[in-house]
Amino acid sequence: MRIVRRLRGISGAIAVTLLLARGIPAPSLAAADRLWGADYFPNVPLVTHTGRTVRFYDDLLKGKSVVVNVIYTRCKDRCPLETAKLAQVQRLLADRVGRDIFLYSISIDPQFDTPAVLSEYAAKFHAGPGWLFLTGNQQDISLLQKKLGLYSRTDAVSPDGHLPSLMIGNEPTAQWMLNSAVDNPRFLAATITNFLTGWKAGRAPARTYEAARPIAGLEPGAYLFDTKCAACHTFGEGDSIGPDLVGVTHARDRAWLERFIKTPDQLLAQNDPIALALFAKYKQVVMPNLRLGDGDIAAVLKYIEAQSAQRRTPNRKIR
Questions:
Q1: What are residue 294's phi and psi, to 5 degrees?
Q2: Which residue among 41, 50, 125, 152 sits deepest, i.e. has the most Cβ atoms within 10 Å of its Cβ?
Q3: pLDDT in tens, 167-213
Q4: Which residues contact 190 (CB under 8 A, 6 or more apart)?
Q5: For 40, which DSSP code?
Q6: What pLDDT digit, counting tens, does each position of 28-85 carry?
Q7: Handedness of CA 167, 94, 117, 79 (dihedral sign)
Q8: Is 179 helix (H, G, I), strand (E, B) or coil?
Q9: Which residues of 220-234 are buried (b: 16+ CB within 10 A; e: fewer)?
Q10: Tell me: the pLDDT tens digits for 91-116?
């Protein structure tokens, strides 16, 4: 029991993993409920992006299957990509969101992120029923981060350093799993469904990486675009969260494109006219700094050129 008590500040999935690694049986559902239920999660008040006050445990967790991440609206780092990925997950899960699965994005900048600011941010990413953006007291939110395993020591110095993670949990069965928030949306949706459905049925999910089909013909540029860009951009399908990219390598100066992909935050801070125009046109969604190297940028642009050549329509203009 000493080991279990020492793990009270660690998320349930990590705790169970460590216990099993030591050869110690995982706690029973009754024991897990004491660890990761009402006695574990703070029942602090939060305010939704619609202005409603809720209690974290009683209203958001109790009896539910949930996906929780932390973001903040002024983020110029991973938050826009993280939120765009979750928007894709929401579309893939369809009407299960708000019925079987609930999505919660908690702001770690509550002084700025008022319900009105979060409401505008939610609209930019087309958040639907069952996906709440939440704010509250800074101390309460920091406590929730630590209890959920979503806290980074760098948060106190710079919020941009927080890890883009999702905590997936089934409160009734006290099963929790930490996952990357910027993974492939289809993989995330399948992981969420399999994990939650498996535990609801009283069994662990049966699918494994060994059962996954091999990825054929995936070049570096295609992989980078799929993982870093596809959440916001399309080819020939019209504007999404960001602009449609067909023909962009011909419409924009190559050197400018390279700079914008590499350091979009710097161009915006320098009042670059094109960056400012794009920022205004696409609802002030910040293009994240993905920390891509020169080789990565060259691969992405080569892929964009190839996709544009396949889909380009005559006289199409990029604005």
A1: -60, -40
A2: 125
A3: 999 998 888 999 888 888 888 999 898 887 664 444 444 454 454 45
A4: 207
A5: T
A6: 445 444 567 778 899 999 999 999 999 999 999 999 999 999 999 988 778 888 999 9
A7: positive
A8: strand
A9: ebbbbbbbbbbbbbb
A10: 999 999 999 999 999 999 999 999 99
DSSP for 268-284, please give it. Answer: HHTT-HHHHHHHHHTTT
204/196 Cα distance (integer angstroms): 9
Cβ–Cβ < 8 Å for 278, 241:
no
Cβ-based neighbour number of residue 159 at 10 Å: 19
Cα distances from 230 to residues 41, 70, 151, 165, 245, in angstroms, run 35, 21, 27, 19, 10
pLDDT at 141 over 90: yes
The letter for the amino acid at 156 is A
How far is Cα of residue 228 from the mean position of the Cα atoms in its chain?
12
Q: Is 0.85 topped by the overall pTM?
A: no
- Burial readout 241-269 (b: 16 or more C-beta within 10 A, e: otherwise): bbbbbbbbbeeeeeeebbbbbbbbbebbe
Centroid of chain to Cα 123: 16
Distance of CA 240 to the CA centre of its chain: 17
- Determine the longest span between alpha carbons in the chain, in angstroms: 71
Residues 248 and 304: beta-carbon distance below 8 Å: yes
Helical packing angle, 185-200 and 79-93, nearest 10°: 60
- Is 160 a residue whose pLDDT tops 80? no
Q: Which helix (H) or strand (E) holds 167?
A: strand 165-170
Dihedral angle at the C-alpha atoms of 141, 146, 149, 155, nearest 10 degrees? 70
At 3, the amino acid letter reads: I
Return the closest-CA partner of residue 278 out of 314, 306, 317, 242: 242
Specify the pairing of strand 131-136 against strand 45-48. antiparallel
Q: DSSP letter at 61? A: I
What is the band of 23 on the pLDDT scale with cuts at 50, 70, 90?
A: very low
Tokens 């049925």 -> residue: 201
**In sequence order, what are the residues at sequence separation of 6 or more whose Cβ sits closer than 8 angstroms to the Cβ of residue 300?**
221, 224, 225, 228, 229, 261, 292
